[in-house]
Amino acid sequence: MILTYMAQVIRISFMRRLIPGILIAIFVFVVSSAYGFVVGPDGRPYAEPVSYVVVIDAGHGGDDSGAMGRGGSQEKAVNLAVALKVAESLRKHQDIKVLMTRSDDTFVPLHDRAVFANNNNAAVFISIHSNAATSKKANGIETFFLSVDATDDEARDLAVIENAVVTPDVAATLPRNDDIDIKDILYDLTRTEAHHESSVLAESVQGSLCAALGKENRGVKQAPFAVLSGAMMPAALVEIGFISNAAEEKRLLSAKEQAKIADSITKGILDFKKTTSRGWRIVNKTARKD
Ligand SMILES: [Zn+2]
Question: How much is the pTM?
Answer without folding.
Answer: 0.74
